[in-house]
Design goal:
Layout (H helix, E strand, L loop, with lengths): L2 E3 L2 E3 L1 H7 L9 H23 L18 H17 L7 H10 L5 E2 L2 E10 L6 H17 L4 H8 L10 E6 L5 H7 L12 E3 L2 E11 L2 E2 L2 H31 L2 E2 L13
Antiparallel strand pairs: 1-2, 1-9, 3-8, 4-5, 4-7, 6-7
Helix pairs in contact: 1-2, 2-3, 4-8
Amino acid sequence: MGISVNDIEITDEAVERELPHHASAPIPLKAAVEALVMREVLVQAARQKLAAEPGSQPLQEGVSMDGGAEARIEDALIDRLIELEVKTPVMTDEECETYYLKNIEQFRVGDLVEASHILFQVTPAVPLEILRAKAQEILQQVLAQPDLFPELARTYSNCTSAEVGGSLGQLLKGQTVPEFERVIFSLESGQIAPRLVESRFGLHIVRVERRVQGHVLPLEVIRDRLSEYLTEQVRVHALRQYLKILVGQANIKGIELDGAQTPLVQ
C-alpha cells in the first residue's frame, strides 16, 4: 500500500489483520490503516523514550498485531509512554461544582411525557414533496381542531399507534430518537408542536398529553461520578494533543492524518 512511518512499512498483511476490528467504522479500511499508523507512531516514540529504562525489551521494527509476545510488549511500552508523557490532573471540588452549575440540566432525571403522534412515513412510493404537503395539511387541521387528533391519527398515521389514536404512552428520556425527544420534552401538557417534526422515521405531528417534571440530582450524590467523567475528558483531550504532536514529528508517507482528528489508541 506504500504506507510507512519513519520508513517503517505498514504492510498489507497487517492491515488485513486489523480490518475486522473496524467493521463498524464508516470507512473500515481507512480506520484500520489509521489505527496501525498511530500504533506505529506510539511504538517508535516508546522505543526512543524508554530505551534507557531498566527492564526495557528490544522490539523488531514494524507493527505486530498478531496478539503474540511482541504485541504484548508493544502494548506495555505504549501504556508506559502515555503514563510518563500524558499528565491528567484530578478535578477539584470547585471545578466539579462550576461544571455542575453551568450544566445543571444534564443532571435532571425522571422527566416523563405522555405523547401522541401521527407519522407520515417516507417511502420510495410517495415523493417527499407530496408527503410533506399532506402532512402539513393534516397539521393545520389538528391545530385548528385538536379534538380531531385521535381520529386523524387512526386515518393517516403509518405507525401501529394509529390503532389507539396515535398514543405512544409514557416516555422517558432516552426512549426515542434524539430529534423526536428534543421536541416532546420541550412541549407543555396539551400542547401540539406547531411544525412538523422530522426524524429518521418520517414526518411527525406531535402532541404532549401530559408532562411530569423530574428533579435535579444533588451535587453530593453525583460528585464522584462527575469527577471521574471530567477527569476522563481532560485525559482524552491531553492524549489527543500528545498524539497530534507525535504525528507532526513523524515522517508519515502514503496517508494524511488530520492532527485535530487523530484517532486515539487505547
